Amino acid sequence: MAFALQAEEETMKAAILGGGPAGLYFAISMKLRDPSHEVSVFERNKPDDTFGWGVVLSDETMSNFEDNDPVSEKMIRDNFAYWDDVKTVRGTESMTSSGHGFCGIGRKKLLMLLQNRARELGVILEFQADVSAERIEELRATFDVVVASDGLNSKTRTLYAEKFEPEIDMRLNHFVWLGTHQKFDDAFTFIFEETEHGWIWAHAYQFDADTATFIIECGPKVYKAFGFDTLNQEDSIALCEKIFARHLGGHALMTNANHIRGSAWIQFPRVTCENWYFDNVVLLGDASATAHYSIGSGSKLGMESAIMLAQELNCGKSLGDALQTYQDERKLQVLRVTSAARNSTEWFEEVERYLTLDLMQFTYSLLTRSQRISHENLRLRDPAWLASAEAWFQKRAGGTSSRSPMFAPFKLRNMELVNRIVVSPMAQYKAQDGMPTDWHFVHYAERAKGGAGLVFTEMLCVSKDGRITPGCPCIGVDQVPAWSRLVDFVHAETPAKICAQIGHAGRKGSTRLAWDGIDKPLPTGNWDLLSASAIALMEGNAEPKAMDRADMDTVMAQFVDAVKAAAAANFDMIEMHAAHGYLLASFISPVTNKRDDAYGGSLEHRMRFPLEVFHAMRAAWPAEKPMTVRISAHDWMADEGVIPEDAVDIAGMFKEAGADAINVSSGQTDKKEQPIYGRMFQVPFSDRVRNDIGAPTLVAGNIYEPDHVNSILMAGRADLVLLARPHLSDPYWTLHAAVELGDTEQAWPAPYEGGRRQANTLAERAKAVTT
Ligand SMILES: Cc1cc2nc3c(=O)[nH]c(=O)nc-3n(C[C@H](O)[C@H](O)[C@H](O)COP(=O)(O)OP(=O)(O)OC[C@H]3O[C@@H](n4cnc5c(N)ncnc54)[C@H](O)[C@@H]3O)c2cc1C
Ligand SMILES: Cc1cc2nc3c(=O)[nH]c(=O)nc-3n(C[C@H](O)[C@H](O)[C@H](O)COP(=O)(O)O)c2cc1C
After folding, report:
1. Rounded to two decimals, what is the model's pTM?
2. Statement to judge: residues 410 and 308 lie in one domain
3. Most buried one in 45, 89, 260, 451, CB count within 10 A?
4. Within 15-151, where are the H helices?
5. pLDDT confidence of residue 278
6. Does one domain contain both 562 and 704?
7. How confident is the model at residue 263, as a pLDDT?
8. Could you say which residues of the chain have pLDDT below 50?
């Protein structure tokens, strides 16, 4: 349905700088709303002299266009090329998945259609009108509104940079936008080629009967090694034709950027602007924010913003109010897409990390790279392909079923887990004088019954002085009977395994129970603290003693005794807690380690004591049982602290020392941290560690849906997934997840069989109602 015209609107004079999709579509949208508006488009190029080949638009976008202007929507739709498949080609291997539903149109065609429609509606189109800074000032004075749709290098944005406050982040990779008559009409095709200089790849898709877009991309090293930075366009294209020869079937690669000097390779500028307007000047399209060609949403965003801007300017508001609403609404919408674009951009920047994965996992990782497409979403798109991916995962894990990845088994040394769900360590503050209580027995036993393959205890402290709070439990000779009772129950009554997390609070010790004021010192009865350096946690907390060698020996012996106690209690696994700012972590982070001896300074030196402890613990722990280490992969303190790049080295050193897996966490090192919590926010760190050092990883952090777990595992971003808070609200999270997924193979404790049957029946009924 087209909108209603608002007759009482005042006629407006609008100058549009740039006749790309956004500018032209805004011009059309203005004239449609009020034909009396005087709308002029100033475009520096000739009508058919445009850079680029095809653009992709989705069904959802087309339906927005139909509501706005059914005429141009039909024009566009009549010229579409459609395809449903995504094909991954890596060297000589390839794999296709379906159900992705794209449509494409040539950029030139799109612009010609929009130009015609604009002309038909009375828009004044001035071509070869390169608008200078002086001219922009003149237009401001003579038009009611100046719309800057002058693209990603917007002159207007630069001219008024103080007002718009743009941030331009030049991305690492280089790319060139070419075309070809080779057919890619069966699928949106990603081609990865390994060359003598490294990997280079193409994003190829058909956009009309005989032409396809062929975007070539590579990292900076490969770009330089091929000499693309020095070649002219002709030589650069000839080289690309050679590299991709076996995919081009003898067809040439073509450029339509002859007006551009140099090789036409560019880097992608990620543009964001604090403000999208001032006075009567407003940014639109790529001038205001860019997405990334790898998710193909730039034209869509620009054109949808054009609709909103025209709407706001025609609903009777003052100019200022209209522009403010436009900014508020569109900034948010655009942010959603640009966040996905950021993930996708970064995936391609780091693609070498994934190129060694099995093609199945690599394809899955590619398809889910923007994090907009989830595991279950892929099932809807192509159930057969996802089933084959799940079967591949199970087979590789040694499983025989066709269950979801979260229900695949996993083995570390001799410990066999029935699935990939882990109850993350969580302090309970319910111990008395270092002794675990009935609370611990009930709490952990209940979670072990809940179906998770592995249950972690909270941090068990190696000494009373190593506790965080008076409510924290210890692990030593005195606690063996209590912990044994729990471990025996878990082994006798459930298929779960149980891991003791062992640590020392360091400078974060001697504080109150969480609910009495987390991290605040005790009102009375404080004990002495140890840390890498004498830096208090925060104002009011005691200054710890910087450990000398004798302290190190004492603490190391305590860790070893703790391991012996864990072995005596028959835990299945131990984890050394070297994260979250506690004692061992205080050595690793440069924020908390300011030592000038052999245990401070470079990362190698800062790792020395934690590695000594690790070796001593490993030696005291039965060889057939696994041992992991938890690290903070990011201190969230910019370059002052540990950054994910360091985490790869830290994890690498622990792997070398014999860690069976790395539990990748982050933060809590210092109160000045500035973490960014989002859905699955620590997964990128785990992904990096796992695939860079080739060690299994565990990951936690805002992961709460079975869909999250399956996509993390299937894409190879971690091997085990920890859920903390979800297990506080639901001890039976895994059993319920199986019900939600329609997985009837999940075993429940025998006395709960009636509950299992009812839950599955109710879930099936609910599904039948909604489908
Ligand atoms: C390799 C690549 C592939 C892409 N693939 C897709 C895709 O598949 N789908 C998709 O939706 N988007 C895609 N995009 C993005 C898309 O091209 C842009 O997001 C889209 O064109 C933005 O529209 P726009 O009107 O804001 O800017 P532009 O299309 O850049 O238009 C700006 C116009 O302003 C003109 N101009 C600039 N300065 C002046 C001046 N001073 N005076 C007069 N005129 C001026 C320019 O000549 C140009 O015509 C891709 C981009 C690249 C680089
Ligand atoms: C109440 C509570 C106590 C925690 N105690 C510990 C702990 O003892 N050791 C540890 O390594 N992490 C601890 N954590 C962190 C969790 O293990 C987990 O990494 C974090 O909560 C993020 O996961 P989530 O988003 O699933 O909650 C604790 C978290 C919570 C909520």
Report:
1. 0.90
2. no
3. 451
4. 21-33, 59-68, 70-77, 107-120, 133-142
5. 96
6. yes
7. 66
8. 1-8
335 and 419 assigned to the same domain:
no
For the chain, the domain total comes to 2
Position 71 in a domain: yes
Query: Could you tell me if the CB of 283 is within 6 A of ligand 1?
Result: no
Domain membership of residue 45 as a residue range: 13-349
- Whether ligand 1 lies within 6 angstroms of the CB of 297 is answered as yes
CATH number at residue 334: 3.50.50.60
State the ligand closest to the CA atom of 666.
Answer: 2
Do 295 and 415 belong together in one domain? no
Q: What angle do CA 416, 419, 420 make, to 5 degrees?
A: 105
CA–CA separation, 344 vs 512, rounded Å?
43
Distance from CA of residue 567 to its chain's centroid? Answer: 38
What pLDDT sits at residue 258?
Answer: 60
CATH code, domain carrying 609 = 3.20.20.70
Mutate to test the pocket of ligand 1, among 46, 76, 286, 304 (most ligand atoms within 8 A of CB): 286
CA of 7 to the centre of ligand 1 (A): 33
43 lines ligand 1 (CB under 6 A): yes
User: Which of the listed residues 426, 686, 730 should we mutate to test ligand 2's pocket, taking the one with most ligand atoms within 8 A of CB?
Assistant: 426
* Count of beta carbons in the 10 Å neighbourhood of residue 598: 11
Shared-domain flag, residues 195 and 285: yes
Catalytic residue, from 582, 599, 677, 732: name it. 582
The residue behind tokens 């300011």 is: 594
- What residue type is assigned to position 734 of the chain? T
Has 582 been annotated as catalytic? yes
Q: Which of 283, 286, 335 is nearest to 159 (CA)?
A: 283
Is 334 found in the same domain as 195? Answer: yes
3-state secondary structure of 370: coil
Q: What is the pLDDT of residue 747?
A: 95
Q: How far apart are CA 465 and CA 176, in angstroms?
A: 61
Tell me which residues have their CB closer than 6 angstroms to ligand 2.
Answer: 424-427, 458-459, 501, 577, 579-580, 630, 665, 700-703, 723-726
What is the Å distance from ligand 2's center to 538 Cα?
21
- Ligand 2: centre distance to CA 645 (Å): 23
Reduced to 3 states, what is the DSSP secondary structure of residue 222?
helix
Task: Answer yes or no: do 728 and 582 share one domain.
Answer: yes
Ligand 2 centroid distance, CA of 756 (Å): 29
How far is ligand 2, taken at its centre, from the CA of residue 354, in Å? Answer: 29
Nearest ligand, CA 502: 2
Contact 621/650 with Cβ under 8 angstroms?
A: no
Residues 314 and 414 in one domain: no
